C-alpha cells in the first residue's frame, strides 16, 4: 500500500503560507506545530483557518487536520484542481494575503483557475490588489505564464469593513520557463494608481501631485492614474492609497505603496509611497523585494537548467523560504555578489538548478 | 649505403598527355558547387525538385530535445544483449569483452564496463530470459543487441521484448542473427536471411541494422565479425529518450551489505539491511534526498550518496595525444560481479583469486588488482591511529597550510564537546573529501575499516569540520573585523542621531576605527541631545554620510556569504537580518556563529516573535524614509534612470531598448565613470553594431534562424550556462547545489532494504536505482488510455488484477475499464473492447501524463502465449475517479389506468422512490414515461405516467448510473526478493485460487441451465354467444358454414357415355397403359446396365485402394524413422522452444 512520504516538519506560526505552498507543490505532507502555543490567544487565527479552507477548495483530496487547541496542523496535500472557486476572506487580513499563495499554486492546476475573492482589497500588511495586478502578474510572465492571466478588481474594499471583490484568472501550464534575468537596466517609466473610495475624490489627485513633485526630477514618463470607485463598487469603508511602480528597460519592476492611515494627510501618504519606491530602486536587483519568494520558487520549479536572477538582499521571509525550499525540494541556491568589481553594489546573484517540475495534474487530451 | 640516383622526371612536351595537361591548365578549375550540373531542365521539374528538397528537409527534423549527458565525462553507454535462451548471448558478450579488453571472462555476470574509445565507455549487460529482467533492461538500455536464432526464427520473447521497448521509449536496436552455420544449403540460408530481415524491419523500421554471425570458434564468434559489430556499436548515435532525460538512474554494478554483523546474527538474518549500491549515474542530476525506486524491490530512501573515483576512467587528454586508444588503456575493464582480474565482489565479501602458487617476494611477476591490494595491506607499517595522526587535514580545499592534529589535543577535544550538534548535522556532507589520506583511495577494502576510520577522523578534527564552507569568504571576514563594528555607527536606520562620531567618517574606510568603538554608545547619547541644535550641519552632511554608510554597508555585505548564512547556520532569519543591522555590540565577526552570539540573539528573537505577523510587506518606516528629503541623496539615484545624469549614459537611453541586451551589457560597464572603460565599452558596442550591420548587409537570410534552429540554439546556450555557472565551485558544494552529475561513479547507501534482496542476490538479474520526481512519490488514481494487445488471447476484465510496468515501477493493480460516453460521463466497461482504445482507471503511484506503459497478466515464464496483454499511455492523475456504471432497475405494472400505471418491484421503499421522482422510465416496447409519486401500500410501489397505455405484460425499466471507485490496491512486483525470481505471482484471480486449491465454484441454483420446455400453444376456438351473434350486423357475424354432408348435384347424377366416346376413352386408356409398360421396361434395362457398371467400378476401386494402402504404409515407415532420428537429435541439444 501507499507508503507515507516523509513529512515536512515545521514549527511556529510564521511563514505558514509558503510552507503550505511548498507542501502542496512537493506533495509531501506538512506538519506545523507550536502555532502561538505561548500566546495568550493560542492557535490558528481566523484568517489562517480561512486560508487552509481556501487551499482545500482549490485542491482535490487535501486532508487538513487541526489539533483541538489549534496549535498544530497536519496537511496532506492532494492535487491542485483549479476551476471555479469563490471564497470570502475574513476582515482580519486583506485579499493579498490569500492571493499570494494561490498565485504560486495556480499555474500547476488541472484546470485554469477562476477564483473570486471577497474582502479587503488593500491594507498595509499585504500587497494590495493593485500591485498584484500590475507587478506580481508581470513577474509570472517571466516564467511563461501569460495567456489568460488576469486579475479583475470588481469592487474595492478598504479596511476595516472591506466589501471588495476581485477575480483572479490563471491558466494551467505544463512547465515553467527557466529564468535568466541578470540585466537590471535603467528605470524608463513610472506608473502608479492612486485610489480613493468613499472619500473626497480630490484626495487621489492630491496624492498624485505630491508624488509627481518628488519623482518628476528623474524622468518625465510618469503616469499616475486616479482610480476612484463609486457607489456599490467602493466597498463599505472609506480609504485611499497610492501604489507606485518603476519599470526598467529590461522589464524589471520595482514597486511601493502606502495606504491611508487615520490622521495622516494624503500628501504624507504620497511622500511615503514615493520615498519607499526610491528606496526600492536603490536596493536594486531585477526583482522587487516583495516578490523574491515568488520568483525564487518558480526558479526552483523551472526545468532542469540553471536559472539566474539578480536581486537585492534577501528579506527575513526569503531566508526562511530558502531554507524551507531546501527541505521540501532539496534545492540549494548559489548566492554571490552580482558585481564582483563594484564594491558599492548590494545586489546578489541567485542561481539554482531547477528541479524540472512538470505539472502532473494537467490532463492530457 | 650509397645514394642511389634516379632518372629525373621529364614531362611530356607533345602527345596526348601534353595536350591533356595544357588543356587542364588553361581551363579554370571549377570550385565549389557547379550550378549548371544540377540545374533543373524545366520549370515544372524545378518546382518538383524544390518541393522534394523541402520535404526531405522536414523529415530530417525532430522535436528538439535537450541532451543532458555531459560531454566531458559521459556515463558509459549501456549495451544490453537480449534474446531467448541458447541463442548465444553469453558467447557474444565474451567475444565483445575480449575484443575491447583482450581478456577472456570465465563467468560473465552483471554489468561489465569497458573503455571502448577515447571518449567512450560501454557497459555490457546480458539480459536473461525472465520477463522482469527484460522489462528492467528495456528501461535502461541505450542500445540493444537483439539476438535471434537464425536456424529457428523469431521466438515469442523477441516480440515481447520489442513491445516492452515500444512502450518505454525505444532505444536503438541492432539485430544479431546467430546459428546461421546450422543452415547448410546456401539457397535456404539466403531465403532465411531475407525472410527474417523482412520481419525484423516491419517490427523496428525499414532498414534497421541486422547483423549475421556465423559459427563459433574457440568459444567465441569470429573475430572479424565481432570487430565489425563493435564498429557499428561505436558509431551509434543516441537520441535522448524523454523519460530517461528527466530522471536520474543508475545500473548497479556492485552491491554491498553494510548491516552490522551482530544485528544480522541476532535477528537470524531477518532484519532490514543497509545496502550500498555502486554504479555510474545516468539521466539527470541526482540530488541527495531524492527518493529512489529499485525495480523488483520497492521505494527506498537514500541515506547518503557519495561520488567515488572512477573505476574505469576515460583516458585523460595528456596521456592520449594519439587518435587511437592506446593498448594499455584497452585493458581497463570494470566488472565487480564477474571474475575480472582475480577479484570477485560478493554481496558481503571480496574474493581474491591467486593463480598458481603465491609468494611474497615475486614482485616482478604480473599482479592482479586483488593481489596488489593484499600486498599493500601487508605492507602497512603503521597502525591506523598513526596514519590519522600523520594525515594532513586541510580546512579548505585550497588552503596552503594543512592543520596539524598534534598541535593541541586538549583544545580540540574541548571544541568537539562544544560543537557536537554542528558536527552531527554536517557529518554527512563533509565526510570524504576533506581528508587527503591513503585510506580513501582503496574503497574496496572492507567497509568496516572505512567506518572506523571515519569515526576516528571525527574525533581528531572536529573543529575543522564543524562548519564546512568556502575558503575565500570566511577569511575575508576575518581580515576585516572592524567593518562589522563600524557599520552600526553610521546606520541611518537607527535614528537620525548618528552624527556625534561621524565627523571622522573618512577614516572609517581606512579601517582604523577600532579605537572609536568603546565610545560609541556614549557618542550616540550625545548625539541625541545635540541633534536639535546641529540640524543644518547634519542636513548638509547627510547625503554624503548616507552614501558612505550605504557604500560601507555594501562593502560589509560583500563579505557576507549569504549561501553560508542561509544554509549552514542555525541562525533564524531575523537574526541574520538583525546581525546585518546590528550595532557594534553584536560583535558578529567571522566566528559569528559562536555560542555567545547565538544565545544573545535568540533571546531577542523570542521577544519579537510575540508581535510578529506573517506579512508580505514590510511596514513603511516613516523615520527612515525621511532620509529621502535630502536633495543630494535624491540626486545620487539619478544614474539608475534612463535620463540619468551620467554624461555618457544620458543620450543612450532611448537606444537601449533597441540595441538589445548585449548593448546594455556594454553600457552597464561604463557605470564606473572610468574613461578607459568607457572607451572600451564604446568600442565594444561599435563592434557589435558593425557585426550586426555586416550580417544583415551580406546575407539578410543567414542571420534569420528558423524556429527549429532557434530552439536548438537556445538549448545550446542554456546548456552552456548550466556548465559555466557552477564551474569553479568545489565538488561538494557543487553536489549540494546541483546534485551529482550523470557520468560520476557513485555509491548510494539505501536504508531498510528487505533482507531477501541480499539473501537471494543473483548478479544475473540487473539492479536498477531509478530516481523519482517529487510528484512520483505520491499515490492517486491514474487514468490511462489502454489497448489490449492484438496478440494477447485473453480479453481483459474490469476488476481483474493486472501487472503494470510504468515509469521505473512494476506493480499490480486493479483497473476499471471505461469509455467516454458522449463526453457526458465515463461509462464503465466490463471487458476491454476489441481493436480499440479504452480508458482504464486504477490506483497506483503517480506517473506524469504521457508516460507509456505496458501491462501483463502474469510475469511467470510458464505461460505459453504472448505475455504482454495491453499497452497504453497515462492521461490524467487525480485523487478521485468518476466512473459510472449503468444500472437498470426493472419493475412491473400491477394496475393500469389509461396512461397511468402503478408499478411495483422497482424500489423497496418510498424513500427510494422519492429520490427518483421525475425520472424517466421506459417499457420494453418503447413507451416512455415518468416516475410520479410513491404509493402508500406495497413498499416501493409508485405511480407512473406513460405516453400511452401500457400492458400488464410490459416490463418497466429505469436507466440509472451508479458511480464506482477503483479498489485501492497496489502491489509492487518484488521479483528481486525471491529466490526463484521468475516465479513471482501477485494477487490471483478467484478462479485461479479455486483451481489451485481444488475448490469447486459455488453455484446458484437459479443460475443452472435446465432444458427449456415449450408446450405448443393451444388456442381455444372463438365462441360467440348466440344472442350476441344475433345482434351483430351481417358483416360482423361469424361466417361459420357446416360441412356439406349431402351429395352434390353432380354426384347424384349418373353419366352415360355415347359408344364413340366409350371407344375413344378405352383407346386412350390402352395407349397410356402401353406407354407405361414401355417406360417401365426401359428403366429396368437401364438399371441392369448400371448395376454392371457399378460392379466394374467397385472392382477397380478396390484394386486402387490396395495400391494406396501399400504406398501409405511405405511412407509412414520412412517418416517414423525420420522422426525417431530427429527426436534423438533434439534431446541431444536439449532446448526448450516455443513456436511463435
Automatic annotation (TrEMBL), chain A:
It is found in: Nucleus, Nucleolus. One of its GO terms (biological process) is endonucleolytic cleavage of tricistronic rRNA transcript (SSU-rRNA, 5.8S rRNA, LSU-rRNA). Keywords: Nucleus, Ribosome biogenesis. Residues 9-335 form the RNA 3'-terminal phosphate cyclase domain. Pfam families: RTC, RTC_insert. PROSITE patterns: RTC (PS01287). The keyword Nucleus applies. The keyword Nucleus applies. Residues 182-282 form the RNA 3'-terminal phosphate cyclase insert domain. InterPro entries: RNA3'-term_phos_cycl_insert (IPR013791), RNA3'_phos_cyclase_dom (IPR023797), RNA3'_phos_cyclase_dom_sf (IPR037136), RNA3'_term_phos_cyc (IPR000228), RNA3'_term_phos_cyc_type_2 (IPR016443), RNA3'_term_phos_cycl-like_CS (IPR020719), RNA3'P_cycl/enolpyr_Trfase_a/b (IPR013792), RPTC_insert (IPR036553). GO terms for molecular function: RNA endonuclease activity. SUPFAM superfamilies: EPT/RTPC-like. GO terms for cellular component: nucleolus. Gene3D superfamilies: RNA 3'-terminal phosphate cyclase domain, RNA 3'-terminal phosphate cyclase, insert domain. Signal peptide: none annotated. PANTHER family: RNA 3' TERMINAL PHOSPHATE CYCLASE (PTHR11096), RNA 3'-TERMINAL PHOSPHATE CYCLASE-LIKE PROTEIN (PTHR11096:SF1). Belongs to the RNA 3'-terminal cyclase family. Type 2 subfamily. This is 18S rRNA biogenesis protein. It comes from Fomitopsis schrenkii (Brown rot fungus).
From TrEMBL, chain B:
Residues 1-12 have a biased composition (Basic residues). It is found in: Nucleus, Nucleolus. PROSITE patterns: G_BMS1. The keyword Transferase does not apply. Residues 75-239 form the Bms1-type G domain. Residues 16-34, 44-60, 1078-1116, 1123-1133 have a biased composition (Basic and acidic residues). SMART domains: AAA, AARP2CN, DUF663. Keywords: ATP-binding, GTP-binding, Hydrolase, Nucleotide-binding, Nucleus, Phosphoprotein, Ribosome biogenesis. Residues 415-459, 491-506, 522-533, 653-673 have a biased composition (Acidic residues). This is Bms1-type G domain-containing protein. It comes from Fomitopsis schrenkii (Brown rot fungus).
